[in-house]
Amino acid sequence: MSFRPSATNLSSLRSSSKSWIARQARDPYVKKRLSDPASYRSRSAFKLLEINDQWDSFLTKPDVKAVVDLGAAPGGWSQVPYDPLNIDDLEPSSALTGRGTIVAVDLLKMQPIHGVHAIQADFLAAETERRIHNLLSVKGNLECKADIILSDIAANASGNDVHDIESSLEICEAVFCFARQYLRSAERIGRRRGGVLLMKHFEHPLLQKFRVEKLLPNFHDVRYIKPDSSRSASREGYFLCQGWKALEE
Ligand SMILES: C[S@@+](CC[C@H](N)C(=O)[O-])C[C@H]1O[C@@H](n2cnc3c(N)ncnc32)[C@H](O)[C@@H]1O
């Protein structure tokens, strides 16, 4: 049986599907992903690589021992810190010395990545935090903290601007609350830019207000980043926040 689409099938595609296919065919990062020996699972991996390259290789610092990747499926971002952390087959409560932990969370099931602990769950659900906590709770990380928290979570676009902005704000607020509890402080790490939060958001004045009120006072350095690899038509951007001050501890 052939799975090649017939001419009839192609001609019956909606014009939005046709333009998506045409855009994928033109996209240099789609081509790069297909030819890259790292076999990244997503085009998004190039956004993280680009941000990391431009901002002092924060992922590869030798003191990075634990990373939490929120909205991780299909797994491109989780693949990026895998090598520098030199992860082996870590079980919760096994020795951490010289190794690290990556915890990946997504609503969707993720194909396994060696050394990455995947949780299929809604990050916004109360019990998910306990599951992340248990995985961070390994020997050598008695504080149960993460050195880096990444969030590429994107709720499905509804087409309703107000609703989509509210979702983005809700996610950013939840990620920030999580960071407040789980991010290791710059002081504890012994580096002014230690304790990093990278989060996706949708551009809107309410998100800028969130940046000013929540992020700026709590980190030594906060940047708005629109990576070249992020499609210009998309309203997504990233806040890269380095140097968690842990003011409430
Ligand atoms: C842009 S994709 C992430 C791509 C990923 N960084 C990669 O490189 O493979 C956004 C992800 O956020 C997930 N997501 C959306 N809402 C979520 C939630 N409440 N909890 C967990 N994951 C969520 C989606 O299922 C989707 O897989």
Automatic annotation (TrEMBL):
Keyword Transferase listed: yes
Pfam families on file: FtsJ
GO molecular function terms noted in the UniProt entry: rRNA (uridine-2'-O-)-methyltransferase activity
GO CC, alphabetical: mitochondrion
Domain Ribosomal RNA methyltransferase FtsJ, chain residue ranges per copy: 40-243
PANTHER family named among the record's database cross-references: RIBOSOMAL RNA METHYLTRANSFERASE (PTHR10920), RRNA METHYLTRANSFERASE 2, MITOCHONDRIAL (PTHR10920:SF18)
Protein name stated in the entry: rRNA methyltransferase 2, mitochondrial
